[in-house]
User: What shape does this take?
Amino acid sequence: MIIDFLAIPGLILIAGGLILPALPERLRGWLSLIFPAGALAVIFALPEGYTVHAVLAGMDLQPMAMNKLSRFFGISFAIAAVIGLVYAIHVRDLIKQSATLVYAGSTIGVTFAGDFFSLFAFWEIMAVSSTVLVWTNRTSQADKAGMRYLIYHIFGGGLLFAGILLHYAETGSLLVVSFSQVYTPASVLILLGVAVNAAVVPLHAWLPDAYPNATVTGAVFMSAFTTKAAVYLLLRVFPGWEILVWFGCAMAVYGVLYAIICKDIREILSYHIISQVGFMVVGAGIGTELAINGAAAHAFNNILYKGLMFMATGAVLYKTGTTKVAYLGGLAARMPLVMVLYMVGGLSISGFPLFNGFISKSILVGATGYAHYHVAAYILLLASVGTFLSVGLKLPFMTWFDKEHSLMVLKKLPVNMYAGMALAAFLCVFYGVVPPALYAYLPYPVDYNPFTVYDITKTMQINLMTFAAFWVFCHKFHGELIIALDLDWFYRKPSWFFRKVFVTYVSLAFGMVEKLAYSAVGGLRRASRNPMKWLNPITGYRHKAWSYSPSYGVVLGLILVLYVIMELFVIS
Amino acid sequence: MNKTRWILFWALLLAMVVLELVGSGGGGWTLIPAFYSLFGFVLCVGLIYLAKFIGKNFIDRDLNYYDN
Assistant: This one.
């Protein structure tokens, strides 16, 4: 039984989160690394096709099912957890550390779940634990953003659950399988539920709302886990659904446009996540082996370089206390190491050769071309231009190079944060230089060589000229203190109205009814204090209860006894 | 960016354009020499202007926009 339990890697991490309070406070950061390391070992050790069976309330469950795709994503998430926990060793807040482990564990649980019921259980644990990562930031903005995030994800979970129930009713099986491209209510609901977590436009507004409000260390985990777990599900359950190609293209451009517009460095990165996930969704939509390989590889690389960039901007937040571009600028000389590490991520995400972004982006764009989605291929290239512009040029320029906008005292950065960033940067360069190390684990066999002259020259030309264009127009980028309106306008603007109707008026109504009840009771009490007043209203005699002759009492007593007898014996 | 760096930049770009003619791949529009350089430059400028337009007119709001 214990062996079965330990064979579910997600549970190892969740157990770690629960055991953490029992560990000594100073060692918690270090000891928490044991759990993702253990999960990684288990994932490597278990053979292909390994499953764990369970029966719950008459349902046949498979909490753990190993296949090539889930192994790849499981390894990615475990590595992300290790890197993030190294980055977070300095954290002294138990709730943050526990929640992080539970979050990582539930994500890996979702990845390996072989049936929809276990998947849904882990899905909801993911939603709750990631909300905690936002709430522990303990600002009033984070409180509200976390609440919106939670409600949105519970809504998404509800859609997923409805779909799962319908699917179970239709097919009688809970196993996670690929759905053929048929739009039944069950498949559409499951697709919508997964789309919420994948931040598919228009269901994306929670991401740039919550991620910039998360903690310095929490944001790193959030960027790596929720969206990529949803991408895994799309690859597993909905490969080849053509509608995903177009929604993916929309996401790619939408995210990049907002990334160019936004003026908060973590918000820029959050919108950019939407763009990068758009690439993966296009890959899922195409559904060929090359496309799925590309999407999976892109997810892994994304976890590395996006995590690295969130770590670097988290370091900026830690050092300066702000992420608003209006206050930053000119910091290159004062935090050179963070800047260099960020640029490794920036160059990776822009697809420069010898960094890991290049090896997966070229597969994806190539797969799009081979499948004859030429329009989509150009849209993805447009998104690549915007990618380099927004997070490879604009963000570092406004944070580190532009003139200094405020005088700042910089805090010293804990060494483990540098270590986490260095680890991610090393992997970015390693996989960029040795792509077969990544390709070996992809779900389908790969005979792809990304280092073709054509691809290298194509990417370098695009990026070099993007840089030139940025250089010409860099004075157009100003830091302003703004809120970027997005589709969350629709539920945030009318929120005062809903609060009035559903909270204020309802509690007013309850208050009124309560007052009415109390006054009714009070009146009844006053009236029944002296019943003789009502029984003998004719005389002006001042009724006092003790002034009546005993005969009154006898008569009243007789009436009461007759009533009791009647109740007990006659009315049955 | 001083002169040497700009010279390096243009040298690298030229090398890439020349190499593209050596490599094989693509068709149609992409056969124009330096297609991807123009593509990158034009689209980047277009994105900057588009983003500024959309931002100024539709999206940017004060920090207290949602406070009620």
Observations:
- The longest strand of chain B covers residues 60-61.
- Residues 3 and 62 of chain B are 41 Å apart (CA to CA).
